[in-house]
Amino acid sequence: MTEKIESIRNAPIGVFDSGVGGLTVAREIIRQMPDEGIIYFGDTARVPYGNKSKDTITRYSRQIIRFLKTRQVKAIVIACNTASAYALEEVKKDLDIPILGVIRAGAVSAVKATQNGKVGIIGTEGTIRSGIYETVIKEMMPSARVSGKACPLLVPLVEEGLLHDSVTDEIASRYLSELKAKYVDTLVLGCTHYPLLRSTIKRLMGEDVTLINPAYETAIELKALLEKEDLICCPGVCQPQEKYQFYVSDLAEKFTNFASSILPQQVKETKKIDIENY
Amino acid sequence: MTEKIESIRNAPIGVFDSGVGGLTVAREIIRQMPDEGIIYFGDTARVPYGNKSKDTITRYSRQIIRFLKTRQVKAIVIACNTASAYALEEVKKDLDIPILGVIRAGAVSAVKATQNGKVGIIGTEGTIRSGIYETVIKEMMPSARVSGKACPLLVPLVEEGLLHDSVTDEIASRYLSELKAKYVDTLVLGCTHYPLLRSTIKRLMGEDVTLINPAYETAIELKALLEKEDLICCPGVCQPQEKYQFYVSDLAEKFTNFASSILPQQVKETKKIDIENY
Questions:
Q1: Would an 8 Å CB–CB cutoff place A166 in contact with chain B?
Q2: Which strand (E) or helix (H) includes residue B134?
Q3: Contact B155, B196 (CB under 8 A)
Q4: Cβ contact A7:A37 at 8 Å
Q5: What is the dihedral of CA B224, B225, B227, B230, to 10 degrees?
Q6: Looking only at Cα atoms, what is the longest distance across chain A?
Q7: Is B157 touching A (CB cutoff 8 A)?
Q8: Distance of CA B100 to CAs A72, A272, B80, B133, Å?
Q9: N or C terminus: fewer CB in 10 A for chain B?
Q10: A44 burial level (CB within 10 Å; 0-12, 13-18, 19+)
């Protein structure tokens, strides 16, 4: 019996995203829980998720979860705001392992951080349209005033590498002016790409506005969840070479290069799978 | 026998794209062949195609062609530059009806238009990486000097509606400066979204540079092909309400609104299908 429990405890954590953005969440998990193994899946054949429907994103998430289950993961993190917003509650129903998204952790931190109760959320069209950040924040803080703003151009600008560029400044400034005018004192970076624009957003919003990165908070929530479920792995069990495994639905080599630039260690290999078959 | 041939002649033309861009091709077909029926498919659940691999785009194209065949189309137009570049030659092999893409027609026009033999191509990463415009142009004009430039941000800017905007000007200007420096006298708008930026591109390139819109040329090529194959429909056969049928893999209502703004008539309905099942 003890042996079985140990093999479950030492199983990897499944992490998925529409593409590379979720690597910022994987990076936080690696930093905070260096002994845990990770199976990462990026849906690069169907990226982006932010401008697609709830039905479609839920169907995609179910396929990915079926794939991750074939890899015997002990828990799953939806490292994508849009999929967390649209699919988490649906997929939770028929899942027998713990699963969490990035929204709750971000919302909890925003509630802790705000002084004036005015919280801004930036995200994809899907995340903002779902209104989920507002719902979760108001459950905890009914008096909160939550303002969401969809920023659809920020993801392509980041993916083009225009992190410090006058065009990105101009576009970000247009998106953020609405939230500035509402005097939010806390801003949730509600898309995994946005932490890469942190310095630009900080400068535009001003020093007094607290920026919340759900990736960091999600890793803390994951650790607490694994502790509660007695699922923390035994130190030193995972072999370094197989500790982190990467899968995508397209363009494995491009992913490998990007992942190596985001994560603390070199990624050797990414495997391509046909996710539609799951 | 005559009756069977007539029913084939009167069958609709299948047109597909990764999303809404191919509607500019459908619009040209409607203008030039007002009697023909059209079945349009937009792959809105997996859009965009421009930054995905040849294998993936070919697999998606095969699924869509299987779907269009269930609708008894008499011919197929790949109204997407990336899918034309990557998949046309592959899917042609096992198809028993005529199929054409948008590349050849654009290349033929460019060769006709150029005076100095210097031709520029703008398109998605996939289209430019494939080098297909250069290959096809050089088959016809071995002395041509063809310069390709991938413009990945133009599609999201168009989809955000920033058609006349300082940011779009700045980004387009960066992309086009390289081609201007090469003194191209002809520029192929090698992505179905780009004709919507025609006036900006014209202003930046200058009056002396001829812009080629493959949508227009493809409709001419299609008409010639249908005539050659004796597949022109009998006038007045298609009922107006079912003459143009629209299918997508996601967000049918959003598509209906966009299509109505592009096409000469109101689109009443778009049906959503699960393309992964084909």
A1: yes
A2: helix B132-140
A3: no
A4: no
A5: 180
A6: 60
A7: yes
A8: 46, 30, 11, 15
A9: N
A10: buried
Strand A270-272 to A244-248 pairing: parallel
pLDDT digits (tens, 9 = 90+) for B61-112: 999 999 999 999 999 999 999 999 999 999 999 899 999 999 999 999 999 9
pLDDT at A237: 80
Residue A40 tokens read as 């990462």
Is B233 an active-site residue? no
Mean pLDDT of all residues belonging to chain B: 95
Contact (Cβ atoms closer than 8 angstroms) between residue B40 and residue B16: yes
d(CA A113, CA A107): 10
- Per-residue pLDDT, B2: 55
Helical segments of A165-213, H only: 166-181, 198-205
Question: Which chain B residues are within 8 Å of A152, Cβ to Cβ?
Answer: 156, 159-160
A146, β-bridge pairs: A119
What's the confidence (pLDDT) of residue B221? 96
Per-residue confidence at B120, pLDDT binned at 50, 70, 90? very high
Report the distance separating Cα B57 and Cα B111, nearest Å: 28
Instruction: Count Cβ–Cβ pairs < 8 Å, chain A vs chain B.
Output: 45
pLDDT at A1: 47
Which helix (H) or strand (E) is A193 found in, with range? Answer: none
Q: Which residues contact A233 (CB under 8 A, 6 or more apart)?
A: A9, A10, A11, A35, A36, A37
Q: How confident is the model at residue B1 (pLDDT cuts 50, 70, 90)?
A: very low
Q: So what's the pLDDT on residue B67?
A: 98
Amino acid of residue B102: V
Is residue B179's pLDDT more than 60?
yes
d(CA A113, CA B142): 65
- The token duo for A110 is 């925003």
Q: At what angle do helices B166-181 and A166-181 cross, to 10 degrees?
A: 180
Backbone angles phi, psi at A101, to 5 degrees: -110, -170
Angle (CA) B24-B196-B155 rounded to 5° is: 95
How far apart, in whole angstroms, are the C-alpha atoms of residue A35 and residue A27?
13
Which residue in A43, A44, A46 has the most chain B C-beta atoms within 10 A of its own C-beta, making it the best mutation to test that interface? Answer: A46
List the beta bridge partners of residue A120: A147, A187
DSSP-assigned letter for residue A204: H
ipTM above 0.95, yes or no: no
The Cα of B164 is separated from the nearest Cα of chain A by a number of Å equal to 14
Enter the tokens of residue A194: 């946005």
pLDDT class for B6, splitting at 50, 70, 90?
confident
B170 contact A CB<8A:
yes
pLDDT in tens, B257-276: 989 988 998 999 999 999 99
Q: DSSP per residue over A130-169, as a string?
A: HTHHHHHHHHH-TT-EEEEEE-TTHHHHHHTT-SS-HHHH
Mutate to test the interface with A, among B46, B47, B54 (most CBs of A within 10 A): B46
Asked if the C-beta of A54 comes within 8 angstroms of chain B's C-beta atoms, the answer is no
Point out the residues of chain A with pLDDT beneath 50: 1
Residues of A with catalytic roles: 80, 191
CA distance A202 to A225: 31
Q: What percent of chain B has pLDDT over 90?
A: 90
